[in-house]
């Protein structure tokens, strides 16, 4: 018996030295640990009879996932492979490691071996220790047809039915095989099989064991979506959410108690057939329905954070940004600081300037240093790098614009490149306010405000005025009602004078009718008639209206978000040019105004005459004149015009000085500029450019040459327009400077608008509100164009411990 055990077939073969690797004589070390099937002993009967004698092996234990095990099974002469076997062969096929010693094959007078890098270069290649050792194509072994592309019964051989074990022309064979049609077909079948099998198998073992939990998580999330959508609706539409008492079950309705719009809208969803919400409320515990005011605050705060994260992400992509800030007191007597950001968004050739609201912040200290700390604190809290701050836009109060201890000076001490720009709309308003210091102009503004307040405070007076407007010859005018004179709403201020001038005759007729009444109304009407039925008032009103018509479009355009500092100054220069031309033609210009005044005064039976002139006059202008026309021109028209010109020049001087340093980058000015004009900007923004002065100057020369031959009407005149014609690949340094220039703030109109939303959010009915809730509601209301996915809100909420599971 012992002799029979020792007389094995392999004992009759002797291995040739140097032709078989040492590792081949050992039991395969690559067999997977924990494999269910025992090692299979292969005999020489399974070896390819055509293989070189040098690669014939004695009986060995081969790896269970050796690709050679699937060669004969994939043939039609054998049992077909199971789906699981094909999947394992594709994904878990045995692969020698980098230290594996491939057996050498004697070819002619040289020995060659399979190379490991073949497996890296061709992922479909697999090495087999079986069939005499050699390489197979996994795809073709498992999925290829039995014949090749050629005509006739040409059965597939090397790499499919037989291993590749001749390596002299291995590279050519592998390349040709990769291109052949049957390989491409097999590859396509393999990819489709993997997709199908993965879909069929689905989740891994852990998820299959937790399928019930996954289903519960899905239901929990579905139940929370209607609640979040209801809060989003209320937030975007500025609908108050809470009521007097908003706790308890939704089904417990108290007719005497208003529990708020939020809970009412949830009931409306239930009545409309929202099954997901109904199932959630019926199945959840009383302390896990998530309709309480506490969880409502969490959802609102989370939505606000998501919106701010998106804004901050856009700012980080743009890199450079400017801050717009203003301060106001809300109805709850809390000083609120609003912070907005200005930056360049969009992609190449489609850049746009964006001004977006960031958040409100309670202000405890209204000094320059206190406001600066609040602004920087908001920026750092939201994850913005203040080193990329390149502009500051505030109004003209001393706490903000002070050059020594103002907020802008405190911030510039931290970030020297953060230039301060006085709001252009405030500058325009200040120019008009300064011009109103003339006695004649000031009295007109006061009388207009008093008349507007007199009519607006009584519905009866308003109805009488409307009747007079309809019966008046001026009913053809587009103005059908008075506008209140508001000094903080710049556009309405201009519109108020225009409307008052057009409706002057119906106003006087209404006051004459109201003067007949007994009591305060009659007395007040008499006072107002005495003020406005004077030649001095009518003349000054028509003078103001002639300039308000000029300033109205300017005031509207200055509040545009996409406007840059150069375009704004261009608009201001156009108006200033008109003012100077009117000053040069003051005689002719005032004659046209006086002609209109004469027509209206004749209708109202007002005499046009100049006041009495005395030797010593303290309370009004006392210029000697030969006619009433000359008097009113010298005392009202020319001084008002001169005051406006001086105001435009002085108030816009700072913005003009800051723009002059870098305006040579704008193609409109670049063609008339020299390289030395750019030197101050290069030095100031040296840290942003990260290059030598000569490199930046050379790039500017190419930039200027690009526009030298372009017609003047086709040359960009603004920073954002120039940026859209400045590829970063061609002009990297100019592109950086233009981005910074487009970031310069023009007005704080965006910040002012947020206070309008604040007055809708915090009213006398809901004057107490936490900062997190306020910012969440403000973000939804002001930035209603940003869509928030409820699933994203749920993911954020799930980061904290909850009574219900919302994630696996």
TrEMBL record:
Location of the DUF4371 domain = 181-404
Domain named HAT C-terminal dimerisation is located at 730-782
State the SUPFAM superfamilies in the record: Ribonuclease H-like (SSF53098)
List the InterPro entries.
Answer: DUF4371, HATC_C_dom, IFN-induced_PKR_regulator, RNaseH-like_sf
Pfam family, any one: DUF4371
GO-annotated molecular function: protein dimerization activity
Which domain of life does this protein belong to? Eukaryota
- Its recorded name reads 52 kDa repressor of the inhibitor of the protein kinase-like
Region described as Disordered = 1-40
Compositional bias (Polar residues): 25-34
């Amino acid at each position: 018996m012992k002799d029979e055990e020792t007389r094995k077939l392999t004992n009759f073969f002797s291995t040739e030295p140097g032709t078989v690797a040492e590792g081949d004589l050992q039991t395969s070390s690559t067999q997977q640990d924990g494999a269910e099937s025992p090692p299979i002993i292969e005999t020489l009967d399974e070896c390819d009879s055509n293989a070189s004698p040098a690669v014939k092996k004695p009986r060995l234990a081969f790896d269970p996932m050796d690709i050679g095990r699937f060669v004969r099974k994939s043939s039609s002469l054998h049992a077909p492979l199971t789906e699981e076997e094909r999947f394992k062969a594709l994904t878990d096929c045995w692969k020698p490691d980098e230290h594996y010693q491939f057996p050498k094959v004697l070819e002619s007078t040289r020995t060659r071996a399979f190379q490991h890098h073949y497996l890296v270069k061709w992922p479909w290649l697999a090495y087999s220790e079986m069939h005499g050792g050699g390489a197979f194509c996994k795809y073709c072994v498992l999925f290829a047809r039995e014949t090749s592309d050629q005509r006739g019964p040409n059965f597939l051989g090397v790499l499919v039915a037989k291993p590749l074990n001749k390596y002299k022309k291995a590279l050519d064979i592998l390349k040709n095989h990769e291109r052949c049609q049957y390989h491409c077909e097999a590859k396509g079948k393999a990819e489709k099989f993997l997709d199908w099998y993965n879909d069929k198998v689905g989740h891994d073992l852990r998820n299959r064991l937790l399928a019930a939990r996954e289903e519960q998580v899905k239901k929990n999330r579905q139940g929370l979506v209607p609640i979040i959508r209801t809060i989003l609706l209320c937030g975007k539409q500025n609908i108050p959410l809470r009521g007097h008492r908003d706790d308890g079950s939704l089904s417990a309705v108290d007719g005497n108690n208003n529990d708020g719009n939020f809970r009412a809208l949830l009931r409306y969803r239930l009545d409309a057939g929202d099954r997901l919400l109904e199932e959630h409320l019926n199945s959840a515990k009383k302390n896990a329905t998530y309709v309480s005011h506490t969880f409502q605050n969490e959802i609102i705060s989370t939505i606000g954070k998501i919106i701010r994260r998106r804004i901050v992400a856009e700012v980080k992509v743009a890199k450079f940004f400017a801050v717009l800030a203003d301060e106001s007191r809300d109805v709850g007597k809390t000083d609120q600081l609003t912070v907005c950001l200005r930056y360049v968004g969009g992609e190449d050739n489609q850049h746009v300037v964006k001004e977006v609201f960031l958040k409100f912040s309670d202000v405890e200290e209204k000094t320059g240093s206190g406001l600066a700390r609040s602004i920087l604190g908001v920026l750092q809290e939201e994850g913005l790098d203040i080193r990329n701050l390149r502009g500051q836009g505030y109004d003209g109060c001393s706490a903000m614009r002070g050059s020594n201890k103002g907020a802008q000076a405190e911030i510039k001490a931290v970030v020297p490149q953060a230039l301060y720009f006085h709001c252009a709309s405030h500058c325009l308003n200040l120019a008009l306010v300064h011009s109103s210091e003339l006695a004649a102009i000031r009295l007109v503004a006061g009388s207009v405000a008093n008349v507007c307040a007199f009519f607006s405070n009584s519905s009866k007076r308003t109805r009488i005025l409307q009747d007079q407007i309809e019966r008046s010859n001026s009913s053809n005018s587009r103005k059908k009602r008075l506008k209140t004179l508001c000094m903080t709403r710049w556009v309405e201020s201009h519109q108020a004078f225009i409307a008052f001038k057009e409706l002057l005759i119906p106003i006087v007729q209404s006051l004459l009718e109201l003067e007949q009444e007994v009591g305060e109304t009659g007395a007040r009407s008499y006072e107002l008639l005495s003020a406005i039925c004077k030649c001095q008032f009518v003349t000054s009103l028509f003078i103001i209206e002639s300039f308000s018509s000029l300033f109205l479009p300017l005031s509207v355009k200055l509040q545009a978000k996409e406007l840059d500092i150069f375009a704004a100054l261009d608009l201001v220069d156009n108006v200033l040019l008109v003012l100077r031309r009117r000053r040069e033609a003051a005689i002719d210009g005032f004659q046209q105004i006086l002609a209109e005044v004469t027509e209206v005064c004749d209708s109202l039976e007002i005499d046009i005459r100049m006041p009495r002139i005395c030797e010593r006059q303290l309370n009004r202008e006392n210029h000697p004149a030969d006619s009433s026309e000359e008097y009113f021109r010298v005392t009202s028209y020319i001084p008002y015009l001169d005051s406006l010109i001086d105001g435009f020049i002085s108030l816009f001087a700072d913005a003009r000085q800051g723009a002059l340093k870098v305006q040579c980058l704008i193609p409109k000015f670049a063609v008339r500029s020299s390289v030395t004009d750019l030197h101050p900007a290069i030095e100031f923004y040296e840290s942003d450019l990260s290059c030598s002065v000569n490199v930046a100057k050379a790039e500017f020369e190419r930039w200027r040459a690009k526009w030298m031959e372009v017609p003047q009407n086709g040359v960009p005149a603004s920073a954002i327009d120039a940026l859209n014609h400045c590829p970063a690949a061609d002009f990297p340094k100019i592109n950086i400077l233009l981005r910074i220039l487009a970031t310069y703030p023009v007005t704080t109109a965006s910040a002012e608008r947020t206070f309008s939303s604040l007055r809708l959010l915090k009213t006398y009915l809901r004057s107490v509100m936490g900062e997190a809730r306020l910012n969440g509601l403000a973000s939804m209301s002001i930035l209603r164009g940003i869509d928030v996915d409820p699933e994203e809100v749920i993911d954020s909420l799930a980061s904290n411990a909850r009574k219900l599971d919302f994630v696996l």
